[in-house]
Amino acid sequence: MKIRSCVGITKPSLLLVHSELPALTFHKTKLTWTSTLRFPSNYERTSGSVTRFHCSVAGRTGASTSVCSSSSKSNTVHLSRKQVKPSSLYSRPSLSNMKKERIANRAKVYEFLRVLGIIPDELDGLELPVTVEVMQERIDFLHKLGLTIEDINNYPLVLGCSVKKNMIPVLDYLGKLGVRKSTFTEFLRRYPQVLHASVVVDLAPVVKYLQGLDIKPNDIPRVLEKYPEVLGFKLEGTMSTSVAYLVGIGVSRREVGGVLTKYPEILGMRVGRVIKPFVEYLEGLGIPRLAIARLIEKRPHILGFGLEERVKPNLASLLEFNVRKASLPSIVAQYPEIIGIDLKPKLLGQRSLIQSIIDLEPEDFGTVVEKMPQIVSLSNTSMVKHADFLKGCGFSLQQVRSMVVECPQILALNLDIMKLSFDYFQMEMQRPLDDLVAFPAFFTYGLESTIKPRDKIVAKKGFKCSLSWLLNCSDEKFKERLNYDTIEMEEMETMPSFDMNSLMEPRSDESDSDYEEDSDDDHTLTGD
């Protein structure tokens, strides 16, 4: 039996067909077949190589010569690659395994924090150390800065800050600015978010902005220590609007640096919610806007007095203690602190004390506060000593009471200076005590600068005048009075009083915003 077969190899533009039939020989137990393909002599070079192979299947053998073209080679290589297993030098874990490992590590860190007393509930989603050892390093570093577990619980996100990448660069920068290491603990308690900041992107621009507000470089560290939150403000946000508003109401541009150095919290105050309502309320009370600006220049912290919580209730308390409403502007202008302290208990205590010392009537206490509002913060010991001094000078209780109502300042002056003035009054001026009862402000004038020179001039001219006529005027006015033919009674009876216009006068060039803490008064005005 003959079987015709057709063998073809396809190549571009090449088709070979051979009609020669293969010969098959059958045996009983063995089947052998041979197939021969003939090609042109140059085909081996162009199409591939001839390979002879034998195959044996279940006792059957066969020999065949075949042509492996370049295309069959590529197919063979492709198949063999599929069969070869990947290299086992290393194996990459699956994403699910990696996720499980992260969850397990985070659980260990959370458990570690709970053992220390730190609540990790707010840390979900925050990148944390993958090992307990690294977390321990962060906590130890925070402890060295003085922060406690309670501090960390107040702001647990601080645990997301790397010691080397975040904490150390920020603290080094603050130290180079001049922020004292002794203040770091309180600094971080108030504004722990600073540890997340970038020195170049976040901190340095704010410092440069503060310097542009005329805050001196040496004062920058003090500003940051007082108000570290300023490092988190936007440059063109609240800071710029609050400063612009203050300049708009009359705060001198050259005083802005000093104002912010004394009370940097202004930079975080919203104009519409805090500063403007405060200014407008005082203005409605009867204090001119320019006078308010001068008060802010000298005591900028008054802007921090809560309008609803402190200012309004305190002014209402003054009215309860027989202070006249018309006197409120003068009281606030003389002693701005009175609208920011816990006033009512002080009023009760001082009224009770003065009443026990000089038998002062409740109605007269209101007059005393109007003339010297600092009385609410005056030391109890000071008042007792001054009252005893006056009684020791020979004044009756009624006379002392009259003098205090007329000039409450005599309860706050330097006692040694008062003694010198009284000795001169008795020994040199030789006037009756009634003259001091009529004009107790005598004790408020300088002995060497005013009392002695004027007394000698009047004595030389042979004038007879009251202490008020002698002292209650400027040097220029006193020279004019010496040329009078008669002494006017109204000038004799004039008593010194606070002048609101004096508050609106331009500040002298001496106070060019140097950082100094102002004292409340030249005398012994100290609280208990």
From TrEMBL:
State its location(s).
Plastid, Chloroplast
Q: Which Pfam families match?
A: mTERF
Map out region (Disordered) in residue numbers: 495-528
Q: Record's superkingdom?
A: Eukaryota
GO term, biological process aspect, one:
developmental process
Print the keywords alphabetically. Chloroplast, Plastid, Transcription, Transcription regulation, Transcription termination, Transit peptide
Q: Which GO terms describe its molecular function?
A: nucleic acid binding
Q: Name one GO cellular component term.
A: chloroplast
> Where the protein is mainly located, per its record?
plastid
Regions of compositional bias (Acidic residues) in chain numbering: 511-521
Task: Give the protein family.
Answer: Belongs to the mTERF family.
Q: This chain belongs to which protein, by name?
A: Transcription termination factor MTERF4, chloroplastic
Query: Source species, please?
Result: Gossypium arboreum (Tree cotton)
